[in-house]
Amino acid sequence: MAISYRPPRHAELAECALVWYYAVDGYMARLNRPLPSPYLDPLLILLEHLLATDPERFLVAVRPAGAGSAHGREQVVGFGIAAQREHVWFLSQLYVLPDEQGHGIGRALLTQILPSIPAGMGTAQSPQAGRAASLARDERDAADNRPGILAMCTDSAQPVSNGLYARFGIVPREPVFNLVGTPNPSALSRLPVGVGAEPFGRSDTSAAIDSIDRTVLGYAHPADHALLRRSGRTGFLYRSDDGQPVGYGYSSEAGRFGPVALLDTTLTAPVLGHLMHAIRPRGATSAWVPGSNDRAMVALLRAGLRIEGFPALLCWTRPYAQFESYLPASLALL
Ligand SMILES: CC(C)(COP(=O)(O)OP(=O)(O)OC[C@H]1O[C@@H](n2cnc3c(N)ncnc32)[C@H](O)[C@@H]1OP(=O)(O)O)[C@@H](O)C(=O)NCCC(=O)NCCS
Hints:
Layout: E1 4-6, H1 13-30, H2 41-53, E2 58-63, E3 75-85, E4 88-96, H3 105-113, H4 131-144, E5 149-155, H5 159-166, E6 171-181, E7 195-199, H6 206-216, H7 222-230, E8 233-240, E9 245-252, E10 260-262, H8 268-278, E11 285-290, H9 294-302, E12 306-316, E13 326-327
Parallel strand pairs: 4-5
Antiparallel strand pairs: 1-2, 2-3, 3-4, 5-12, 6-11, 6-12, 7-8, 8-9, 9-10, 10-13
The chain binds coenzyme A (COA).
């Protein structure tokens, strides 16, 4: 019986989180790096957030009961979800259970959550056109005619996802490194005289943050900032002495660094040092550093962090962000 595709029920989010775990563990185990036992709470919080902000871009692939599904009931075998933030469509998650991979489920989820091609922009399909012609048309149209920018982050160790997305023009363009360790903030210079740090919450900083985001990241995303604060990240707005915002940054006691967005890249090392001083993590710190953010890479290595694992890859159809001025919060929601 065919797999069906539909929006998830709220109660199925935990099943989606397990699909994520088994899908990632499946290929990491082949690389001799199996995942530790699942701790899925942060992913569940993210899935709930995206179900609230992007319900029309969240689909599950379901195997009906009695059609080879485990447990004799309907089973979620894959899911995909994208976040639309202004003109940027960002694929946050696409996962299929290992036993179900390679049969077109990932592609079917992806094509159904991609932005639609405006009427009249696609190539008319002749009744004789076969599946191959139809797929080629979808791919070309995805890169050329879909509105806005398509983007995502992939694992460099995963040729299947990189190959699948690149067929749609969403090509890997830039590495992102995971830096981990216990930082020594005194290795970094202090904020220069004339630059001050204001903790979020003291005044209404939303317009300043939106404006910095549009300059650095290409789009504003206030709902995601609200999620960051609900999830225990503490942030600061940095201003020059004439009161002009020059950037913002977050860290957390759980050791999650970012996002950090700066209008002046010469502030990178002092802002990272300030965040390390202001928020002392209980354990190790982890940060995602785009390769083009050379100042952050040098600063965090100098502060004692070390590169962990394989880099991830930022993929896009057309450039949209100044990654030399940005550290993302995660790879699932920049
Ligand atoms: C990535 C994933 C979601 C794809 O789902 P899937 O159902 O296995 O994928 P599909 O069968 O629909 O399509 C796979 C495509 O990749 C292509 N592909 C596979 N290996 C490839 C390679 N080495 N180079 C280029 N393309 C490749 C296949 O040809 C196929 O394309 P086609 O439909 O044009 O033939 C799934 O494999 C998965 O969950 N993997 C583990 C987790 C993961 O990496 N998720 C993505 C996180 S960014």
